[in-house]
Amino acid sequence: MSFTETDVQNALKNLIDPNTKKDFVSGKSIKNVKVSGNDVTLDVQLGYPAKSVWAEIKATIEAHLKSALPGAGKIEATVASKVVPHAVQRGVKLVDGVKNIIAVASGKGGVGKSTTAVNLALALAAEGARVGMLDADIYGPSQPTMLGISGQPDSEDGKTMLPMTNHGLQAMSVGFLIDANDTPMIWRGPMVTQALEQLLHQTKWDNLDYLVVDLPPGTGDIQLTLAQKVPVTGAVIVTTPQDIALLDARKGLKMFEKVGIKIVGIVENMSTHICSKCGHEEHIFGAGGGEKMCAEYNTEFLGGLPLDISIREQADSGKPSVVADPDGNIAKVYKQIARRIAVKIADMAQDHSAAFPKIVVQNT
């Protein structure tokens, strides 16, 4: 029985991408369908990084087409990911070398925001994305320690800095420029916001799919600068189940809403405590707070992480959980959350500003 490219497309309308929950055709993932006799070749282009499941998706699509197309011969699907820039706040230009910026924020300190940010960045990189980490916590930079990076960045032209690198991430932090161990940042607001802008724009980011920005806690100068001058694709809020943390997290969420930055979702850290001696699990900070907040504000609960001593020990050693124990349960949760973030960003409106030519008016 003969079949056409349209038959192939129609067959794939019944196959759901387990990550996006959409069929592969309406998700615009199917490209370059070719039928030669009874053989079929096609490309599957995912809008999110998913290196760990490429082989699974390839096998699923090939098996589905083999079943749906009677008499089909060889079926060859090539799976890859392509991350594109997505829309940001109006009037804010994209940063050179950066497609998407993900802000990781919290309403208050001590909820594990920086640890969450670095593990999510490493999880995106593990899935094949080009990822950077910007430590915007000017007063308390912690990413140099967590990423195990020491020294100062190089400059090729005396005007810009090359990002520091480790674990497959490009990174920049004020901690690279000072002795972060014992030098306090006694700066007023304008100096802090200027430092953030310089770290962002004077770093030569190299073709990043995502730049994860680790924000300081609260809703102050840094957050306002981020909203007004930094092109943010979406924000992730980190909280604990504790009532006081959720109260502050709500303020952070409302701030992003007011300035036109999309909320990707909420991560609940320290959801449960797992005893290192007996393995007993207990909700010492309360239960269900993050999910309740998501329901109140119509946003997504991205996942919950346990209060586990290994997360702290691994981050302090310069090898966060995703690289220290990549096949462990904690790394698995970080990777699931990171993939969900990437899928949600892929579903946002694209930024087409780079496609338009620059118009220059000259007097003749």
Could you characterize what this model shows?
It is a single chain. This protein has 364 residues and is an alpha/beta fold. The chain folds into 2 domains: 5-81, Fe-S cluster assembly (FSCA) (GMP Synthetase, Chain A, domain 3, 2-Layer Sandwich); 98-346, P-loop containing nucleotide triphosphate hydrolases (Rossmann fold). Helices cover 32% and strands 19% of the residues. The protein has 11 helices and 13 strands. The protein has helices at 5-12, 54-68, 113-126, 143-146, 189-201, 221-229, 243-258, 289-297, 309-316, 321-324, 329-346, and strands spanning 30-36, 39-46, 75-81, 98-105, 131-135, 164-166, 169-173, 208-214, 234-239, 263-268, 273-274, 281-282, 301-304. The strands form 3 sheets. It has an 8-stranded mixed β-sheet with strand order 6-7-5-8-4-9-10-13, sandwiched between helices. Strands 1-2-3 form a 3-stranded mixed β-sheet, covered by helices on one side. Strands 11-12 form a two-stranded antiparallel sheet. It is globular.
Strand fraction equals 15-25%
Reported for the largest beta sheet, the result is: 8 strands, mixed
Which CATH architecture of the largest domain? 3-Layer(aba) Sandwich
How many helices in DSSP terms? 11
Choose one word for the global shape. Answer: globular
Q: What is the CATH topology assignment of the largest domain?
A: Rossmann fold
How large, in whole angstroms, is the Cα Rg?
22 Å
CATH superfamily of the largest domain, called what? Answer: P-loop containing nucleotide triphosphate hydrolases
CATH C-level category of the largest domain: Alpha Beta
Enumerate the strands of the largest sheet in spatial order, edge to edge or round the barrel: 6-7-5-8-4-9-10-13
Please tally the β strands and state the result.
13
> Low-confidence spans: pLDDT under 50, at least 5 residues?
none
Mean pLDDT across the residues is: 86
Tell me the number of structural domains: 2
Helix content: 25-40%
**Helices and strands, in N-to-C order?**
HEEHEEHEHEEHEHEHEEEHEHHH
- What is the structural class? alpha/beta
- Termini separation comes to 67 Å
